[in-house]
Write a structure and sequence with these properties.
There is one protein chain. This protein is mainly β. It is built from 3 helices and 17 strands. Strands 3, 4, 6, 7, 9, 10, 12, 15, 16 and 17 form a 10-stranded mixed sheet that branches. Strands 2-1-5-8-11-13-14 form a 7-stranded mixed sheet. A hairpin with a 2-residue loop joins strand 16 and strand 17 (about 240-250).
């Protein structure tokens, strides 16, 4: 029996404060809004009480940020895709930002258990003056428990949608099959790493060349000083997008690098301090 859930988050501004209106069905919740940085930035934690998705389950998350709002969303722990008997489990997150809205989409890692049939999908639509920072951090199997990703598959999909249904300016979609030893172990693939992470800064319109160069420079400086320097890289695959990618044997290292670069990009883009969500310190 499938266990589906949906959550709709709608951010708006009233009297210079970002407020959240939400609706939910099934076992998916949002905790109380917090304002550790003042009223203009709303921090929220998404909670999925079952703790993971099995075959046939679906999580449907809609996030909308209205004019001038700023939201930061994270999770209290990993999202887990468990073993499936054949049906696919899907988490589909849709994000829509109006002009001058900002969103930080920072869920903790997604763990693909051996035997899962999983898809983690993220669709983004930004108005011309909107901006966001987000990441996807995925772990194959349970390497710390010596349980490798021996069976199953994980589909990772991230897409920036064009305005009015226009052609997508940026799309990344890949399928990791546990049986694909060439991808998992080749030096041209994951080279035996069990954790792969992508951090991105996206604007609703083209990022200026000077700003882009500063984003790239800041991130490369941090990467070069980090233990993951040899397996990290920063590029701008599209005029609206800047991307950091890294491979790691341990999720903690990948999270550490993404958090550092996220803080640097936050300061550069928005003049804001590197303020982590409170739940990360618990």
């Amino acid at each position: 029996m499938s266990w589906n859930a949906a959550l709709s988050l709608n951010y708006r501004v009233a009297q210079s404060k970002t407020l959240l209106d939400f609706e939910h069905s099934g076992p998916l919740r949002v905790l109380q809004s917090l304002y550790p940085e003042g009223p203009s930035i709303c921090h929220n934690v998404l909670v999925h009480p079952p703790g993971g998705l099995a075959g046939g389950d679906a999580l449907d998350i809609h996030i909308r940020a209205a004019l001038g709002s700023h939201a930061l969303i994270t999770t209290p722990g990993a999202t887990r895709f468990y073993k499936s008997l054949g049906e696919r489990a899907v988490q589909h997150t849709r994000i829509s930002l109006e002009d001058h809205a900002r969103l930080e989409w920072l869920p903790l890692e997604t763990i693909a258990y051996s035997g899962c049939m999983a898809e983690n999908r993220l669709d983004l639509q930004l108005a011309p003056a909107a901006q966001m920072i987000g990441w996807d951090i995925s772990v194959l199997g349970l390497p710390a428990s010596e349980q490798p990703f021996a069976r199953g598959s994980l589909v990772l999909h991230t897409q920036l949608l064009g305005a009015g249904g226009a052609h997508s300016p940026w799309l990344e979609r890949g399928q990791i099959q546990a049986s694909d030893s060439r991808l998992l172990h080749s030096p041209l693939g994951l080279a035996g790493h069990s954790c792969l992470a992508t951090l991105f800064f996206i604007a609703g319109s083209s990022i200026s060349v000077p700003a882009k160069e500063q984003f790239l420079s800041e991130a490369r400086h941090i990467c070069n000083a980090h233990p993951l320097a040899a397996t990290s890289g920063v590029t701008s695959p599209q005029a609206q997008v800047i991307v950091l990618r890294t491979l790691s044997h341990h999720v903690e290292q990948a999270l550490s690098l993404c958090k550092q670069v996220r803080g640097a990009w936050r300061r550069q883009a928005w003049g804001l301090a590197d303020t982590p969500p409170r739940i990360w310190a618990m």
